[in-house]
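Worked problem 6 (solution included).
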Amino acid sequence: MSYKDLTPSSVIEYIKTFTDVFPAGAQLEVYEVGGGEDDGDGFVNHIYRVWDKTGKSVILKQAKPYLKLFGEGVPLTAKRNQLESEIIKLRSAITPEYLPEMYHLDPDNNLFIYEDCGRLKIMRFELIKGKRFPQFPKQMGEFLAKSNFYTSEIYLDQMAHKFLECKFMNPEMRVIMETILFLRESFIEGEVDLPAGDPNHLAMSDLLWEKRELRVELLKLRGIFMKKSECLVHGDLHTSNIMIDENEMKIIDMEYPFMGPSSSDTGYLLGNLVYEYIAWFHHEEGTKGSRKAYRQEILGYIRDLITEYQQVYTACWDQDAKPMYREYTEYRDDLLRTYIKEACGFAG
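Solution. The predicted structure is:
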């Protein structure tokens, strides 16, 4: 099938012609994600929610050879969706309860169709509202620990591990994170109209970038991020890529996967949670006491997530580590200490 740029008006035709996601004759409607205040997506890819009269709905996600937010002036590999679909399938074999179900894959058109998790909410917006998610630390700790362990060489044979390194090299997407997380320079070349930032925030950022000690530590972390191929990581795990309610959690937007340090996803996520903790010093909602209580709630998420990760990772090791590793629990404990130390660095 030749490459075809879909639009809201052609998405329905595509689904009816090339898929069996909906019954024949179903009356479909479509909405392009990214226009709503709480969408939290649709900045990089073209994403459409499609539903029928019965209420069944799916998400169609298409990558085009540029960054949607800036248009064709910022080229970006359109093959990123293929890797995303591959990692969803792979991780669904490890922790299926935390991944959306895949329905249709079309590599020629750089798109796939998967489960609509719209029954859940984007975690970032819910944290801003002060919502509580008591199951989150346990769910996320399990997701991270099992994903990290079962894609590492502690479990996989060496050839399978090296295959994943080659399969998920993902250089075009990795260079984005290797730049924006650790360097002052932009990954975007040429003249592009970037969104205007708050002058006060930019001034504070300038002060930080002038600190030589900070730049050195960032370069150390960047070296770990670029060179340590422990396991298959999400690459962009923050609270806008988590859909959640009081009982259920789904992880989305996996365009940046690569074989990297086990600590990087945890650290990036913890940095988001620390940001929310700080933000609740400045919220006006509720009383002083309720705001303090919610800050403690977020700190509890951080503590319990790390605890759950260590417990699940240890259980996976005891059950499924290769014989050459299993009895050497001192090595496992050293890996976990290094994981926490590095995660704290990436959180910064």
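Discussion: Residues 28-115 form a domain with the Phosphorylase Kinase; domain 1 fold (CATH 3.30.200.20).
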